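Q: Got a minute? One more chain.
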Amino acid sequence: MKAAAYYLPAGLPRPVPEPDGLDAPYWEGTRAGELRVQRCRACRGWQWGPEWICHHCLAFDLEWAAVEPRGKIYSWERAHHPVHPALRGHAPYVVVLVELPHAGNVRMVGNLLGDPMQAVQIDAPVEAVFEAHDDATPPFTLVQWRVTR
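A: Always. Here it is, folded:
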C-alpha cells in the first residue's frame, strides 16, 4: 500500500544503502513496493537485519526474498522526546516492533501511522505502507505500518 503523505517532517537524514551494498536489495524493494527480507539458501532460515552470514547455520549463501507485507505488533513504544532536531514539535509518535509470520517471524522496527495517542494492542495485525520520497535526491521509500482490522 502506498502512503498518501509523509508521516515524519522534512529535515530528517534520508536513509541510504550501506556503502558495502549489503542492504541495497531491501531499499530497491521498497522502491518497488515490496518488503524484502534475507533468507539463507542453505538452511532456508530468515533473518533481519541484513548480514553477510546466516544467523542460523553460518553459511555465506543469502538471498533477498519478497515477503507478504503484513505482520503483527510484537512490541511498541510511544516516543515523547525527539531523537533528531527535525522532530522537535512532532512528538509523540508510535514506534512498533512488527513480527512477520511469512518470514520466519523476524521482527522489524517502524513507525505506526495514525493518531499518536491511539491505543496500541500487542498482536494487532498491521500492513506495510510504502512512503515514497520521490522528490529526494536520490529518491527513496520508507516502510511505515498501519493497523488493519
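A: Residues 24-31 form the longest helix (8 residues).
Q: Perfect, thanks.
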